[in-house]
Amino acid sequence: MNYRKKEIWKSVDWVTIFLYLVLILYGWITIAGASFDFGDVGLFDLSGRPGSQLLWMGLSLGLIFVILMLERSFFDIFAYWMYGLLILLLIATIFLAPDVKGSRSWLDLGFMRLQPAEFAKFTTALALAKLMSSYAFSLSKTRDFLKALFIIFLPMVCIILEKETGSALVYLSFFLVLFREGMSGYYLLAGICAVIFFVSEMKFAEVVVGITPLGKLLVEIMILVISLFLFQTKIKSRKVLYIIWATVFGTFGIAGIVSCFIPVDFSWVSLGLLAFFVLYIIGLSVQQWVGKYLLIGAFTVISVGYLFSVDYVFNDILEPHQQVRIKVSLGLKDDPTGAGYNVNQSKIAIGSGGLWGKGFLNGTQTKLKYVPEQDTDFIFCTVGEEQGFVGSVLLLLLYGAFIIRLIVLSERQKDVFGRVYGYSVVSIFFFHLFINIGMVTGLTPVIGIPLPFFSYGGSSLWGFTILLFIFLRLDASRKDR
Predict the structure, then answer these.
(1) Using CB atoms within 10 A of its CB, is residue 100 exposed (0-12), middle (13-18) or buried (19+)?
(2) What is the pLDDT of residues 448-457, one digit of tens each?
(3) 356: Cβ–Cβ under 8 A, 6 or more apart, which residues?
(4) Which ranges in 204-340 belong to alpha helices (H)?
(5) Could you say which of 29, 53, 166, 276 would form a disulfide bridge with 448 (CB–CB 3.0 to 4.6 Å)?
(6) Which neighbouring-strand residues pair with 108?
(7) pLDDT tens-digit profile of 439-475?
(8) Cα→Cα distances 394→349, 350, 358, Å
C-alpha cells in the first residue's frame, strides 16, 4: 500500500534534509562573502548575487514540496519520457544558445538563463535506473551493457557539442554505478589505464633518449606488463609464463647491447613485443578455443591504438584553452597570467586564510577580485580565505557526512530502481566534489564544474536539489516495495 501524503513527511530522511539545509545556508554565506561589496546593493537585494541566490533557495523549497508530493511510481513511469525531453532540450541548446565564453550551454529565456546540462543529470540517472531495473537485465549481457552505455553517452555527446566539456565529463561518474551493479572490474581498469596512459604520454611526449621517444616507450611497457599480468591470471602453465617473460627481458637485453653500436628506438622494440604477444594469444585462443584470451588481446590492441591517438585527440579535438589547461596542470607550461592564473590566485587566497580565516566579508583576495569566477567554480577559495583551514575542514566533513548518508540510503533500498538511482546521486555528488576542490587547489585540471550547493546559480542549485530529493522521495516509500 502506498504511503498517504501526510505520511511522507514522517518517512522522509530528515538527517539528509538537515545536511542539505546546512550546506545551502553555508553556501549562501560563502556566495555573499565572495560577491558582496560594501556600498553596493544590499545583501538581500535581488539585483545582487546574494539576493538572487536567496531567491533560488526559496524556490528550491517549493520544488522540494512538489517532488515529495508526487507518487513514487511517477518517476518510474515517466523516466524515459523525462530523459527524452532533456535530450531534445540539449540538442536545441546546441543551435539556440548564445555563445558565452566559447560555450553554447545556456538558454536565454528572457527572465532567466537555464543550463539544461544541469537537469540532464537526474533524467539520465532515472533512465539508467529504469533500464537496469527492467526484467532480466544484466550487465553481463552485451546488449544490455550497450544500452546502459547509450543512455550515459548520449547526453555526454550533446553537451560536448555545446562545447561544455567539463559538464560532459561528469557523466563518467555513472560508471561507478555500473561497477556497483556488477560491471566487470576490467572496464574500471581500462578507464584508469586510459587516464594514466594519456598523462604519461603527454608528460614525456617531448622527452627523447637517444632516438627513443620516452613517452611512447613508457606507455608501451605499461601496456605490455598489464597485459602479461592479465594473461597470467588466466593461464595455468607456469612454463609458458617463464618463456614469455624471458623473451621480453631477453629482447630488451639484446636491444640494449645492439644500441651500444647503432642507435635503437626501444619504442619499436616494445611495440614488436606487443605484436608478438597479441599474435601468440590469438593462436592460443584458436587452439584451445578459449575466448578470454581474445579479450586480453583486444585490451592490448585497443591500448596501443589509444596511445597513438593521443596526439590527434589533444591537437585536433581539444579546444586551445583546454590544451593550455592540461599543459599547465601537468607542469608542461608555466602560465601564471593565463590558464594558471585562476589556480595560482585561488591557492594564494586559500593559503592567506591561515588557521581560522580572515572573517566574513574580510577576504582581501576576494574583495579585490583577484580570483575570477570566485563565486561560481572557484567558490571554495572563499571558504579557505574567510574561514581558514578550520572552515575548509568543516565543509569537507559536512560533504563527507552527506555522501556517507546517501550511501547508507542507497544500500537500504529494496528494489534495483531505488538503489541504482541512489548510487547515481552519490556518484554525481562525489565527482563534483572531488574535481571542483581538486581544480581549485591545483590537483586536477580546471574543467569548470560547480561545487554542489555552494557555487552561485539557479540551474546548479535546482539541478542538485531535484537530483537529491527525487532520491529522498524514492527512499521515503521503500517500505512499500
Answers:
(1) exposed
(2) 788 999 988 8
(3) 387, 388, 389, 390
(4) 214-234, 238-258, 266-288, 291-312, 320-329
(5) 166
(6) 113
(7) 888 777 777 788 999 988 888 999 999 999 999 999 9
(8) 18, 14, 16
Q: How many residues does this entry show for the chain?
A: 481
| Cβ-based neighbours of 447, under 8 Å, separated by 6 or more | 165, 166, 169, 325, 435, 439
Residue 124 has which C-alpha cell? 539520465
Question: H helices within 313-452, ranges in order?
Answer: 320-329, 341-352, 364-367, 380-411, 416-440
**Which range is least confidently modeled, 58-62, 170-174, 445-449?**
445-449
Q: What is the pTM of this model?
A: 0.83
Kindly tell me if the per-residue pLDDT of 3 is higher than 50. no
Contacts of 271 (CB under 8 A, 6+ apart): 220, 304
pLDDT for 171 equals 92
Sequence-ordered list of residues with C-beta below 8 angstroms from that of 398, at least 6 positions apart, any chain? 19, 22, 23, 26
User: How far is the C-alpha of 244 from the C-alpha of 283, rounded, in Å?
Assistant: 14
Nine cell digits for residue 141: 549481457
